[in-house]
Amino acid sequence: MPFTAAEIARRLQGEVLGDSALTLSGFAPADRAQPGDLTFAENETYFARAEASAASAILVAGNLTSQKKVLIRVANARIAFAKVLPLFFPEPAFPAGVHPTAIVAASAQIAPSAHIGPQCIVGEKARIGARVVLEGLDYVGDNSQLGDDTRIFPNVSIYARSEIGSRVRIHSGTVIGSDGFGFVFDEGVHRKVPQIGNVIIGDDVEIGANVAVDRGALGPTTIGKGTKIDNLVQVAHNVTIGEHCLLVSQVGIAGSTQLGNYVTLAGQVGLAGHLKLGNQVMVAAQSGVMTDIPDGEKFLGTPAVSDKQAKRQYIGIAQLPELIRRVRELERKLGKQGNE
């Protein structure tokens, strides 16, 4: 659907520099843009590329000007980029109703506006809210509930008694509510501890592909509202994740660890069990966390320590070859003196 530059500027609370009646029919990066496309530039380097491209208009921030292109000036080009993409690439619409191949328990409550796709299974007393989408081959266990406008991509398994909020997105291959990894050693064998808790997911959470969120052993495993979880993440039983956290791919969190709000765990971070990470904590990629972390701290390394301490350690390690060389030289000199 085409939009004029003025219409886009109004939606983004920006201003047009140039022809406000220019019609824009697409959005593309500068190296692929065609006439009629809108592109964006976050800095002067990208702006130079955008000006040289075939794009008809550029989203910009700051005081950039152009004699070649129509500009739509906004407060933040990256945020405007995220807001404008859905205009040109809206998500597919799913018709209300239950596909003939779906299996829905008689006791389940399905909102009339929900879409239950091919070969989905909805268990006893499950509750599916308004405009929920189960795309296909999804499993929703007994007594689970999905809030309004939640979208479940294909091949997602949601175990019994899971509670999922509104506007949640869960991508393919993810499993919500599988058994926590609980065993005790008894008479030479690992005896299973029954996992009888559940999973509670807040509003506006997004969970990537092939994520495992285990249910609690007794109480719930909880993910706070607005949190975003990347692909291939493991969240163990009774973990509590606060609001608006970011968990990047291949993060692993052991049981009963608690994260505050606005925590960022970079790729391949591992957290030991029963830890507490405060609000606004940041942990660098491939770090192994073995201790609690106070509010606002940045940790890195294995075992992870504060970034200031870790940087001092890295500098010291980098100086070791020279230090060894100097020690050997001193030993050589002292050895000669001793022989004299």
Characteristic terms for this protein:
single chain; Udp-n-acetylmuramoylalanyl-d-glutamate--2,6- Diaminopimelate Ligase, Chain: A, domain 1; 340 residues; 30% strand; UDP N-Acetylglucosamine Acyltransferase, domain 1; alpha/beta; ten-stranded parallel β-sheet; twelve-stranded mixed β-sheet
Q: What secondary-structure arrangement, pairings included, does this model have?
A:
Blueprint (H helix, E strand, L loop, with lengths): L2 E2 H8 L2 E3 L5 E2 L1 E2 L9 E4 L3 H9 L4 E5 L8 E5 L2 H12 L8 E2 L4 E2 L4 E2 L4 E2 L4 E2 L4 E2 L4 E2 L4 E2 L4 E2 L4 E2 L4 E2 L4 E2 L4 E2 L4 E4 L4 E4 L2 E4 L5 E4 L4 E2 L4 E3 L5 E4 L4 E2 L4 E2 L4 E2 L4 E2 L4 E2 L4 E2 L4 E2 L4 E2 L4 E2 L4 E2 L4 E2 L8 E3 L4 E2 H33 L1
Strand order of the largest sheet: 8-11-14-17-20-25-28-31-34-37-39-40
Instruction: Please state roughly what percent of the residues sit in beta strands, choosing from under 5%, 5-15%, 15-25%, 25-35%, 35-45% or over 45%.
Output: 25-35%
Helix/strand/pairing category: alpha/beta
Whole-number radius of gyration? 27 Å
SS element count, helices: 4
CATH topology category name of the domain at 156-303: UDP N-Acetylglucosamine Acyltransferase, domain 1
**CATH homologous group name of the domain at 156-303:** Hexapeptide repeat proteins
How many β-strand stretches?
40
> Mean pLDDT across all residues, rounded?
96
Q: Indicate the CATH class of the domain at 156-303.
A: Mainly Beta
- What's the overall geometry? flat
Name given to the CATH architecture of the domain at 156-303: 3 Solenoid
First-last Cα distance: 92 Å
> Helicity range of the residues?
10-25%
Biggest beta sheet attributes: 12 strands, mixed
User: Low-confidence segments, ≥5 residues, pLDDT <50?
Assistant: none
